[in-house]
Design a protein that fits this description.
The chain is α+β, with helices and mostly antiparallel strands. The protein contains 9 helices and 4 strands. Strands 3-1-2-4 form a 4-stranded mixed sheet. The C terminus is likely disordered.
Amino acid sequence: MNDEIWNAIIHNDSSYDGSFFYGVMTTGIFCRPSCKSKNPNKEHVKIFQTADQALAEKFRPCKRCRPDGQRMPDQEWVAQISEFIERHYPEQLTLQVLADSLHASPYHLQRTFKRVRGMTPAEYVQRIRLEAAKERLAQTDQAVTDIAASVGIPNAGHFATVFQKKTGLSPTDYRMAAATKPQERRDGYGKR
């Protein structure tokens, strides 16, 4: 990629719209040069002459600049947001980070996600983190503080508070309850 193209991207130069498109390999999204999304890392950019070339290489059109001229159905877009959250839940995922990564305005992303999923992106992130924590508590002997950090909640006290509020058990009590379930099945207890 030459300096002229890179400068058009980082300065959101609309005079280059239509002359090329750029895809960001780490997100799988492609944009017009004028897109106001966060500037990509130069090493992750791939240049396309047409939107069809980007689509043929399985890049998705940006929701902000709509380089293919089409609007993605909200259900499909929310599925992509959900998939992104599920892959990146241990990271710091603010609404702004999601919006930048998925090339949308924070307000539009929040409103659309909540309408389609019935919860905010933050609530979904928390749900995914707690599910991962429950699995680790049940299947490993990893320290609770380490589990909290590994699921994206580095403050162990906050993790324990949120966990108990959502599950009704402290992380330690959850682990003990999960450990007794297989034993109950072997002993014949717990059957109805």
